[in-house]
Design brief:
Layout: E1 6-15, E2 34-35, E3 52-58, E4 65-70, E5 92-99, E6 106-110, E7 121-126, E8 136-138, E9 142-147, E10 150-152, E11 163-169, E12 184-189, E13 195-199, H1 214-217, E14 218-222, E15 230-237, E16 244-245, E17 257-260, E18 271-273, H2 297-309, E19 313-317, E20 320-324, E21 329-330, E22 336-337, E23 360-362, E24 366-370, E25 379-383, E26 397-399, E27 403-406, E28 409-412, E29 424-428, E30 446-452, E31 455-457, E32 461-465, E33 470-476, E34 479-481, E35 486-490, E36 513-519, E37 522-524, E38 541-554, E39 557-559, E40 578-594, E41 597-599, E42 609-614, E43 626-635, E44 641-648, E45 654-656, E46 662-664, H3 670-673, E47 677-682, E48 689-700, E49 703-711, E50 723-727, E51 730-736, E52 739-741, E53 758-762, E54 765-766, E55 769-771, E56 774-778, E57 781-788, E58 795-797, E59 799-800, E60 803-805, E61 808-812, E62 823-829, E63 847-854, E64 860-862, E65 891-893
Parallel strand pairs: 10-17, 18-19, 19-24, 20-25, 23-26, 24-27, 25-28, 26-29, 27-30, 28-31, 29-32, 30-33, 31-34, 32-35, 33-36, 34-37, 35-38, 36-38, 37-39, 38-40, 39-41, 40-42, 40-51, 41-52, 42-53, 51-54, 51-55, 52-56, 53-57, 54-59, 55-60, 56-61, 57-62, 60-63
Antiparallel strand pairs: 1-61, 1-63, 2-3, 3-6, 4-5, 4-7, 5-6, 7-8, 9-11, 11-14, 12-13, 12-15, 15-16, 15-17, 21-22, 43-44, 43-50, 44-49, 45-46, 47-48, 47-50, 48-49, 57-58, 64-65
Length: 894
């Protein structure tokens, strides 16, 4: 059904699609029902008076009674009442049963109107013969992770506010008069015992940044101006007396918050000025100066090497234009030989090392600092066309870790066209298979990189990666003007399985992108556009991020109204092909996407996504749903309880290497499959997801078997009724309080696909939420579900235990009723077994949807951050631009 007008989402409809025909049902077991109770996995999160609620597990029946009781201290286990209550009050009572059609695996309940909104409750399922289940909770605080996970004693980290965000569920103030009407964050020093109790921002104290939706997911506490250096345990309280520690993901210990000593101030021994005669170009003997039109590569490399030899330091680029025009050519000794220089390897000729093929290397501990990307005297680094020709375009700089790049305007001397080759201005780490081509001790994980207060003018890509694992990357307060393909493009490179050989380049590790912050950036579109005849999926996109764990992407602006960075502002199509794009190379877990602004994401031809969570090119998995043989408890080496699960069948062991050729991992598949999610499609335990820690292959009388060790433990053990798949996926993703505007005349709405501004889960997603977002003239929200057994590996996009709440969706793209619906559900499936007579078995989930159609505008609007983009820099040495604007957005009444 198609609708137009506005959607605000205030009443709850909870539903579950039924899975199997009645003939496939398992009789109720002769013991107490088992429930999904782990707070981060499949457990119901919240429920209020008159809400519908789905509870899941095994052994459930239509004859069961569900009892609730208000909780006091939520850190304590509540004993169940001595008997089933005869009446219901705010403190104690019985929940109404709406449907038992999916028993024994779930019940749909109707919460009584006498319950207190927002209060934490325990629920128990009581069988007809008096057996009580374990306690299940709703509305209790569930702090899961923190961002950032460190701060300086007094200084700002990466130009970020001194704010600690605790991310999770149900983090809003209790509001029931049992304590202070605010959420508090407590930091307890592990070594010193120092304790800080900090109020979290809420709708009263921080009305610009914090909304009622956002405070459910984020407890953001302002840190003191000065703190004691220590490591701290983190706790959260909604009521002033229940202090809940970080829960983590159940697969590893919860995070610790670290306060580090402030960075040491620069000294003459740690500052290396590229203009210093010590770093004179060895070819000419002349020191390098900005604005002279002469290549500066050699001087920059020498200054960087001097900083490296000194044990670290900051390389200074004075105001003016610095040119990278002579990268050198690839010599016969696997090192760069810049034209006019003696040939040879790095130890003899350090000025030539690490340029050709990789760009200028910024080693660990070396920073690059300009005078600023704006104002009357900016620092400009221009990458010449020689760096971008041939089959190997090179980044300007490759960052190996523990680097800060700040105060620089990067620009390309090349205007790109469709089909052109290019790469990023900055690359995070070497391309993974060359990670140690320069030195056998070079890092194979890139850590602690800060890119802040920079401007990127019309690059092919601004920031890219080489496929090495990354952690603690901070990209803040930058302007990305007209990146041809995309401004930020980071992710796994297909083909890393090459390093599973018996003689790897370096020990294999799956790509990861952990503990990252990409906040307070502004993106402007490029001229890149395609048509229906030429479309290959490309176009101007603000960001593309593949893989993540504990990633904060907040307070960014993708302003598609600006034409300044188009090659021909008068003629080139404006707007975006898409704005913010995530995909699964490996998994995307514990991500916060909040307070972002997008305008005109669907003005160019393409899908026009505003915020999308898409599938990726995942190698491996299973050829089809596989039957479980057995599952038993297990404990991993860290002492975390898990499950050993064995299924009949196999996993894919022939993958594609870096050149696309078949590559077998059959001898040792476990390192590759570590981190995959195993998902129960049907039977006992259906709907549960757990993470693979190790995998082994075996055989039995029926053929091949696969044994998985997974964490955390399943709440309900799978059995021989169960079937499983394996996949990379999105988990615990919070998409909250974002603003997407596709209205005309602000935007052209010129996309021939009539698509723009959608928020979409288009890949396997679990325990996630879309709440408090505002979309204007868009295609609304799309939730996509797939099970295809006619591909190998089996094609899956499984949606499980997710919530879509309290979003405002005001009118459709083009206003012509062209979209499939303002909240669209789609699925593509083939039956798993002949007895599947209802909805597909993998489509078992708990949804909370809230919707109301409005004939009047929203009662509030989010004003887009006002940005004045930096003025384009003339090719001869661009200067004289200004950036204005404020963090965050104002919330104003219509």
């Amino acid at each position: 059904m198609r609708h137009s007008g506005s959607v605000s989402l205030p009443f709850i409809v909870t539903f579950a699609l039924l899975l199997l025909g009645a003939a496939a049902r398992v009789p109720a077991l002769a013991h107490a029902p088992s429930l999904y109770t782990q707070p981060a996995y499949e457990s119901p999160v919240r429920g209020g008076p008159d809400d519908l609620l789905l509870i899941s597990g095994n052994g459930l029946a239509a004859t069961d009674t569900v009892v609730y009781q208000a909780l006091g201290d939520t850190t304590q286990i509540a004993p169940h009442p001595s008997s089933v209550p005869s009446s219901s009050t705010a403190a104690l009572g019985v929940v109404g049963l709406v449907s038992a059609a999916d028993a024994p695996y779930s019940l749909t309940l109707h919460l009584p109107t006498v319950m207190t909104a927002g209060a934490a409750y325990a629920l128990w399922v009581v069988t007809a013969d008096g057996r009580w289940s374990a306690e299940l909770r709703i509305n209790d605080a569930r702090p899961l992770w923190i961002t950032p996970d460190s701060a300086y004693q007094t200084a700002s980290l990466a130009n970020l506010p001194r704010v600690l965000k605790v991310v999770g569920r149900n983090l809003q103030p209790d509001g029931n008069g049992r304590g202070p009407d605010l959420t508090q964050v407590r930091l307890v020093g592990i070594n010193t015992g120092t304790t800080y109790t900090l109020p979290a921002n809420n709708t009263r104290s921080d009305s610009v940044q914090t909304t009622a939706a956002l405070e459910r997911y984020v407890a953001a506490a302002n840190l003191p101006q000065s703190m004691v250096v220590d490591q701290y345990n983190v706790q959260v309280s909604r009521d002033g007396f229940s202090w809940v520690p970080l829960l983590g993901n159940g697969q590893s210990p919860a995070q610790i918050f670290t306060v580090n000593a402030d960075p040491l101030p620069p000294t003459s021994a740690t500052v290396f000025d590229v203009s210093d005669p010590r770093f004179a170009d060895p070819l000419t003997g002349n020191s390098c100066q900005p604005n002279d039109g002469i290549d500066d590569t050699g001087c920059i490399v020498l200054a960087i090497r001097a900083a490296q030899l000194a044990g670290g330091g900051t390389v200074i680029l004075r105001p003016g234009a610095w040119l990278l025009t002579n990268p050198g050519t690839w010599g016969g000794q696997a090192y760069s030989d810049r034209i006019g220089y003696p040939s040879g390897a790095c130890p003899d000729h350090p000025q030539t090392c690490g340029v050709s093929w990789f760009g200028v290397t910024l080693p660990p501990g070396v920073n690059l600092q300009g005078a600023g990307p704006a104002g009357s005297s900016p620092t400009v680094v221009q990458r010449g066309g020689a760096w971008l020709v041939g089959g190997n375009p090179m980044p300007a700089f490759v960052l190996q870790g523990n680097n800060v790049v700040s105060g620089i305007a990067f620009q390309d001397a090349t205007n790109y066209s469709t089909g052109a080759a290019g790469t990023g201005e900055l690359q995070i780490g070497y391309t993974w298979f060359f990670a140690r081509i320069i030195s056998p001790t070079d890092p194979t994980t890139v850590s602690n990189v800060v890119i802040t207060n920079d401007l990127f003018v019309q690059p092919y890509i601004a920031i890219t990666g080489g496929g090495l694992p990354i952690d603690h990357l901070y990209v803040t307060e930058n302007s990305f003007g007209g990146a041809w393909i995309t401004a930020i493009n980071l992710g796994q490179l297909v083909g890393e399985v090459d390093n599973l050989t018996s003689s790897p380049l370096f020990p294999y590790q799956t790509y990861h992108f952990d503990d990252t912050v990409i906040d307070y950036n502004t993106f402007y579109p490029s001229s890149y556009a395609q048509t229906a005849a030429t479309y290959t999926g490309g176009g101007s996109i603000a960001s593309e991020i593949n893989t993540g764990l504990r990633s904060d992407f907040s307070d960014n602006v993708a302003d598609g109204t600006v034409t300044q960075y188009l090659y021909n502002p008068a003629l080139d199509p404006k707007g975006w092909r898409a704005a913010y794009f995530w995909s699964t190379g490996a998994n995307q877990e514990m991500t916060l996407v909040s307070n972002n602004v997008v305008t005109c994401p669907g003005d160019k031809y393409g899908d026009g996504e505003g915020i999308v969570y898409d599938g990726g090119v995942t190698q491996g998995g299973v050829p089809a749903a596989q039957p479980v043989i057995a599952a038993v408890p297990w404990t991993d080496p860290q002492g975390i309880t898990g499950t050993t699960l064995t299924f009949q069948g196999t996993v894919l062991t022939v993958l594609a290497d870096n050149n696309g050729n078949p590559f077998s991992i059959a001898a040792n598949p476990s390192p590759y499959y570590q981190g995959f999610w195993v998902q129960i499609l049907q039977g006992a335990g259906e709907g549960q997801w757990r993470k693979v820690e190790s995998l082994s292959l075996g055989t039995n009388g029926a053929g091949s078997t696969v044994t998985l060790n997974v964490t955390p433990a399943f709440d309900v053990l799978p059995d021989t009724t169960s079937q499983v798949v394996m996949d990379h996926a999105f988990w615990q993703n919070a998409t909250v309080n974002n603003f997407i505007d596709q209205r005309s005349p602000l935007c052209t709405q010129a996309n021939a696909r009539s698509s723009g501004g959608v928020i979409s889960w288009y890949a396997s997603t679990a325990d996630s939420a879309i709440e408090g977002n505002e979309q204007y003239a868009t295609n609304g929200v799309m939730l996509h579900h797939v099970y295809l057994s006619n591909v190998n590996p089996v094609g899956v996009a499984l949606q499980s235990f997710n919530e879509v709440r309290n979003n405002l969706i005001d009118s459709e793209y083009g206003g012509l009723g062209t979209s499939a619906g303002l909240v669209e559900f789609s699925w593509v499936t083939e039956p798993i077994t002949a007895v599947t007579t209802r909805a597909p078995a993998w489509y078992r989930q708990s949804w909370a949807l809230e919707s109301r159609w409005l004939g009047t505008p929203s009662s509030r609007r989010m004003a887009k951050t006002v940005t004045t983009p930096p003025t384009a820099i003339p090719q001869s040495g661009r200067s004289g631009w200004v950036r204005t604007g404020t963090r965050g957005r104002s919330i104003q009444p219509d």
